[in-house]
Amino acid sequence: MIKWFADLVIYDWLGFDGATRLGESVHFFFYDTIKILFLLSVMIFFISILRSFFSPEKTKKLLSHRKKYVGNVLASILGVVTPFCSCSSVPIFIGFIESGVPLGITFSFLITSPIVNEIALVMLYSLFGWKIGTLYLISGVVVGVVGGIIIGALGLEDEVEEYVYQIQINDEDQGEALAQESKKEMWRRKIEFAKGEVKEIVGRVWKYVFIGIGIGALIHGYAPASLLAKYAGEGNPFAVILAVLFGIPLYSNAVGTIPIVQALMSKGVATGTALSFMMAVTALSLPAMIILRKVIKPKLITIFVTVVGLSIIGIGYLFNFVM
């Protein structure tokens, strides 16, 4: 529905040509801005209602397993079964922090969720076979677990913006108030609370959504797959590193990058190089980092990008070695 509306506005009403780079970039910006703001609003609304059923203590207990690192594994597995892109994972990240889930475990989810989802896996298995699909699945979980463990070990809780923790306090007050009310009144307050969360969070990040997707749209239209194939093709020992650097400024979900991966591999780009590009686009996109900046500080973003980027590079070289 959103794509149909974007096609109508950009191509039919405004007269842009979808075959040109300008037309492709304008369409990308219009479509993705509407899509991301819609997804953010809907997800924040429903996650806020869902959060109201679980006290911070219950959520924290679910993922903060007594055995070390089990919580990271559980969060990464949860990321696999949630089909969110890097931008739409941000509200869930906020919800985890608000609920008191440890920062490292929260990042395990944030890393894995955009990299791997069930729809992308079905496409990978069907297009590239079970071996590549399975290796990609395992790699995505490993990157999430390892990245979360490292970030958790660094003790960076003070690098989360203060207002996020303030929302946690408000959530606890809200939960106590709801417990004293009738079911009808309880649901009314839950819905009002969720609407308030949408207004609060979207109001804080919408400018960053516009800026981030605008940058992604320019690169999307003016940096075609052939450019990466030219500089990160077979025989270049730095191909994986270049693929990750190429991927970071772009924005797409895992499903959207699979056709690009297929095109790259058809042009002779090695499997590991192409898949590391896919991971970088989905997990480390510049638009997502710009949006994420509203909830975490630059130091933590830098550490996040560095840890995940190095992990993806390592997996890319490993894929090239074993495939």
From TrEMBL:
Cross-referenced InterPro entries: DUF318, UPF0718_permease
Protein's UniProt keywords contain Cell membrane: yes
Sequence intervals crossing the membrane: 36-54, 74-97, 103-128, 135-156, 205-223, 235-254, 274-293, 300-319
Entry membrane topology: Multi-pass membrane protein
Keywords assigned: Cell membrane, Membrane, Transmembrane, Transmembrane helix
Keyword field contains Transferase: no
Pfam families (UniProt xref): ArsP_1
GO CC annotations on file: plasma membrane
Principal subcellular localization: membrane
Superkingdom of origin organism: Bacteria
Subcellular location(s) of the protein: Cell membrane
Family of the protein in this entry: Belongs to the UPF0718 family.
Name by which UniProt lists this protein: Permease
Lineage: Bacteria, Bacillati, Bacillota, Clostridia, Halanaerobiales
